């Protein structure tokens, strides 16, 4: 293996605990949220113990230190994705980052001429895909409801890929925005972003990427992606909950109206009305999640030290092994691509005649934590005519033995629930 | 294994051979319930004879998608309520709800709950309590609709 996961596990205190009658924990749910290394926990603790104050306000020493650390965290996180610090907006999570763009687009209706690019209304189209997480689907459905724009979507092929046959008709001169996952949280599929980005550029549509499952697991360089906006969450990449990122191209952020308004996002406030700060502050109303930003920066440092290329290679080896081992079990069907080509670390599957809840319960009994259900991407289940799936997701701390625990558990579930 | 406390043989039997399954006519009330966290679904119909709380439950029919716990619970529930008055059946439903909320501490009355006592183990798994209650909630809803139409 590229990494030494048994060594890496030692950095994660939670992974040493036992569950359900003293069994060692096998954590295969990092796609929902990752565990945290000591370095991240310490960074947050150190901030609260030594430097806690509201950043960008106050003239006292602690306020200075807090501001310095908050902005240094922004620079670290920006560098992690190949961006400039001024292009990184802190949000609560990827969901809020995507909503920020969707609501800014509604707000463009009443903003000045600089916001023209973001206005949508009847006759305009927004394009998503059938494999989106609800966080990159529902905000656009709602934007269409508020503005009268039309939602259209890419379908999926039987083998879990994006169906691009009608790319040119789907993304057309009426398209204002394309919102797409950078890696499916259910199927693991990595869509051909460059091809879609080129088409979006041709017709002048904005491209928003939901990178919640890509930034934690592979090298991402926004300067080479061809996207206009990119959203991800800190907690899925070893960082704390309560912090996410919206990256946007500078000229777009400068022209985009705010979503949440209030303190720190203003320029001048009078009773008659207000003007707004330049980005990224324009999009960060209220006292921000400072300790969380510091924690996320520590997570970026931790991942950078290991190397995102190596993280990706490690996960690819785990996925290849999982696909092979699961494929050997009669009655198990992979939902999504069955090779590691253009594929990330989410492996969803069904087991004939056993509901995913029951599979998950057996795995839990054996100490194996997986996700069961529709994984906040219900249309995927409808597309493939299944009620739900069992999903294993991998990270840098998982081992081949973890995959064996998974497949052993699936076989035990078949023995237990099979007809006597 | 702990799991056997939850998946009692009675539950697995009802799961493999569900009673009263399938949607039937006639009916006065229908409800469709989903568990949005997992996607389990049930469509359930109630056929009553008579009016008000003394009405007799002549039939409960359903179509459901879901895990063994939700499927078995639907099957056991129909056995428990069909043939009773609405008032009696509601009392059984309340007893079952109390058992499910007992976090493994309940002492179910087998005379009242019959096969449903097998679900006592489920109450120790908070994530699964909703599975066991899905059909019961749909039945209460469908019954309220049936009574609304009947009165």
UniProtKB/TrEMBL annotation, chain A:
Top EC class for this record: transferase
Alphabetical list of InterPro entries matching this protein: Aminotrans_V_dom (IPR000192), Cys_dSase_SufS (IPR010970), PyrdxlP-dep_Trfase (IPR015424), PyrdxlP-dep_Trfase_major (IPR015421), PyrdxlP-dep_Trfase_small (IPR015422)
Gene Ontology biological process terms from the UniProt entry: cysteine metabolic process
Pfam families, per the entry: Aminotran_5 (PF00266)
Cofactor(s) needed: pyridoxal 5'-phosphate
Top-level taxon: Bacteria
EC number of the protein: 2.8.1.7
GO molecular function, one term: cysteine desulfurase activity
Chemical reaction(s) catalysed: (sulfur carrier)-H + L-cysteine = (sulfur carrier)-SH + L-alanine
Residue stretches making up the Aminotransferase class V domain: 26-406
Keywords: Pyridoxal phosphate, Transferase
Family indicated by similarity: Belongs to the class-V pyridoxal-phosphate-dependent aminotransferase family. Csd subfamily.
PANTHER family named in the record: CYSTEINE DESULFURASE (PTHR43586), CYSTEINE DESULFURASE 1, CHLOROPLASTIC (PTHR43586:SF8)
Protein name: cysteine desulfurase
Organism: Actinomadura rubrobrunea
Lineage of producing organism: Bacteria, Bacillati, Actinomycetota, Actinomycetes, Streptosporangiales
Gene expressing this chain: sufS
TrEMBL record, chain B:
Any one Pfam family match given in the protein's UniProt record, by short name: NifU_N
InterPro entries in alphabetical order: NIF_FeS_clus_asmbl_NifU_N
GO MF annotations in UniProt: iron ion binding; iron-sulfur cluster binding
Residue ranges that the Swiss-Prot or TrEMBL entry lists as coiled coil: none
Domain NIF system FeS cluster assembly NifU N-terminal: 6-131
An annotated GO BP: iron-sulfur cluster assembly
Tree of life domain: Bacteria
Gene3D superfamilies: 3.90.1010.10
Name this polypeptide is given: Iron-sulfur cluster assembly scaffold protein NifU
Organism, as annotated: Actinomadura rubrobrunea
Gene symbol of the encoding locus: nifU
